[in-house]
């Protein structure tokens, strides 16, 4: 695994490497080299199984992290590729031409995170949320609690007490 | 691929025609839930303490803590009980697994039909349900399954052999790792806050330790307690007696965690952390009599509010009973100085060796200052007044302790008998044991008290440690007579003490005169409590002061006496212990501020 | 495609015919295309999803999967729950086999915080995961027959599944949502007499395995409806991300239990079956083999596992359990194939992101849409069940 990553870092500009397990490594690369790397890994290195791709919202840094996890079924190793893209007008190259199912992932990411993948088939079709008019809901700034409080109504008659506060009110209200 | 076999084989299913049906005929009655089934909630409301951990772990917000008639808030019990909303509950039973007392369980009942959906919100154990007496159902799994550590992180102590000859501090204090591990055990229920006389934000500062934010921790400590180094060592930690974790395990070491915060923050940073670099003065002056915990606490909060504070102290150093009553091995002088120096850095002045009542009258202070706070404490030893107790080698523990602190030579006999079962008795026992060890190379101390082993007011660890250091603690005896032959003390006659209080609760010891013993010794120390010296409140002021029960001066909730400018607090009013003094001083400071602002 | 004596003349897997340009020969100008919605009502054992079919005659020209009927925003909800609170939530991702969610969450949390799970807990986890596979297969194997009108097998399966649920109830306190594999360990040892009762249930299942073979796999009608239908080309396995029994039926020996052994699987003997025909019948047959293998695995586990021990490692206080910053991907083999959790921890008490990779995400969307083209309407349900779709893991 280590040797393989070392070889890989000669070809691509890998900025961070983390060995999570002996058969799973996370590498960070820049946005521009991802597509080239994915097709290299698929065609030359035997990473034929596309496990998943997803996004992580690091709202405090203003970036989305995109993670692609690839699997080499022969060597039985996993490689996760992380890239960072700007949160504002988030856009990424589409990888639908490499694996057929990627289009579905990209369609979901477009809907849930608002990340655009120009050229990806049916990317603008809604995936789960027909008629959604709010911000993409998987973004960290979408507050589910607030949304549910505004959209639904609480059950009447509910109310709770904090033990310490309650004891203060009952036992030493003036201190 | 297909063959005649494929046409015929499916017909083998017909053999099932001759089988008994497998369905349960009467599932409502014939099919109880499994013994571990996670069915409807049960709560043993008598052992529930309303800590609310069930509510905090519930991921569906299905549990509300509600007040129940007949369950009042009291020490160690919030009086609240969980109410479950079955519109939200998912029966994961995490509430059962996290329950600090083990009162909450699930029954194996799973059938409940009702037309009113509001009925599905109920208080287990209060609203009677058919499954209340079901034995079966989900309980804490056991077998090493705990959501938090039940055992304390062990505190490092000096070994008895290392410590019994010197006055070096015994308790070593937690390391960072130990403190964070201990802080992790806290479930943040906050039951302890009400019991602490100063109502310290205990869960909050423990959280600060967990988050490794000790500056925040220090700020939380100083909100309610300006003597954390001292309290972190010798507080009577009433909070730990009500800790919810203590119901099934060992209480959180709240006192040692407090000490950890204070120890870790360097004194030179205090002013920056506590944001007291600059205090806007308001031009008013307050006099404080006595620099014990009450006086220092009042001084701290008054100084922070901008008052000019002057303390009048009878002795040569500040700290009162904390310095002169508590031995150095429990509370090193450095720690006292750290807390006091910070308070002094706020601009508080101390006049040492000034005896109010002799060197300056209280009335004069009343005239010179806008208000006076008196925290004069209990510094008079009480005598048993038994036969022979007037002998010159019968001492008062409080005087001996003071002399040890002042560095005076005291009489240390080869065999000593101590009368008393409180912390002071343990202090003098252990101090004298050290001195005996230094002088004679061995310990021959007998400490006896009226109270039996279980009822001794001293902290358990004090008794254990005293024994480790070689002293004999023999409680449950009433002193009768100091045996004196030819002017020399030979020992103490005692009889077995059967009970301390009569049916009405008055102090009235009953003894079994048949069972008598004689403790040999050539020196006796009495440590049965202390009295207050209020001689500084002289005529004509004395007439204006209203007295309360048990010879104490009456004060209102602001610790104001019937003389409006005179406030009192500390051991003379409440206690005796340090934390009450601190709480009194804090409230008196707020009372003084209120009194002067309203004026 | 082999012809057999019941074959009445044409091979439906090749209809409509493919023209010289590689496209289907359909006269679109005839305006004879019809839109037909299959779902979103529960079509058998496949969950609520719908397929928008464009049909010409009874052949499908285009298919689009529509999901969202079961969307509860789980992945979002996880982000505002403490790790221990994720535990009762995450299981609801899948009704059929909730235990893989429990395991994946527990395993990822333990991996990120470096917790060693006690021996007996590892065995119990293995047992529970195999029992979950067993009850799932008891639904889906006869369920395949159900799609062609063979209802009896389904009823047998439901009865036996109920017996497994009884065992689950005894062991975990719950029938469907077991909430048993908790981060750090498990929530209970085997109850008194459990092994005996489970073994007698397994005996009944042994009998069922033979009966279902007679009823379904040696059934001319079932064979007629499934052999050669719903073909998955081996080249699609990687390009569509096909895993589990579906990949094994296409000749790829992929099983997480063998390839990336977790828990106690490397101490157990088993050999996942493969085949090459890759049609509905073969996939169903592979699941039938899996069923046999699972029964055998449970027997092995019961014989090998210790009876007593600590069931949960001491973790930090769960009320404020902070997981160190880090990411991991943890997978296990569900009855549908590779089931994974991608977990990102940011050092707080709350997970930053938990992403589920379920087999249906690829099987029921891109693969199904591709496979249905050219299929017959009557075969849609069979094809869906043969892929063992589970919509909740698509929408999460």
How does this model look, in words?
The complex is a heterotrimer of chains A (175), B (599) and C (396). With 175 residues, chain A is of the alpha+beta class. Chain A has a single domain (2-153), classed as NADH:ubiquinone oxidoreductase Nqo5 subunit (Beta Polymerase, domain 2), CATH 3.30.460. Chain A contains five helices and five strands, in the order αββαβββααα. By secondary structure, chain B is α/β, with parallel strands linked by helices. Helices cover 31% and strands 16% of the residues of chain B. Chain B folds into four domains: 27-122, Alpha-Beta Plaits; 160-272, Orthogonal Bundle (Fumarate Reductase Iron-sulfur Protein, Chain B, domain 2), CATH 1.10.1060; 280-378 and 538-598, FAD/NAD(P)-binding domain (3-Layer(bba) Sandwich); 381-528, FAD/NAD(P)-binding domain (3-Layer(bba) Sandwich), CATH 3.50.50. In chain B, a hairpin with a 2-residue loop joins strand 15 and strand 16. In chain B, strands 8-7-6-9-20 form a five-stranded parallel beta sheet, sandwiched between helices. A five-stranded parallel beta sheet of chain B has the order 11-18-12-13-14. Chain C has one domain (74-360, 383-395): Cytochrome-c3 Hydrogenase, chain B, CATH 1.10.645. In chain C, 45% of the residues lie in helices and 13% in strands. Chain C has helices spanning 74-79, 83-90, 99-113, 119-146, 151-172, 194-217, 220-226, 236-239, 244-248, 256-259, 280-304, 359-372, 377-387, 392-395, and strands at 33-38, 50-56, 59-66, 181-182, 185-186, 326-334, 337-345, 351-357. Chain C has a three-stranded antiparallel beta sheet. The longest helix of chain C has 28 residues, at 119-146. Mean pLDDT of chain C is 87; it is low at 1-10. The interface between A and B is medium-sized, with 18 and 29 residues.
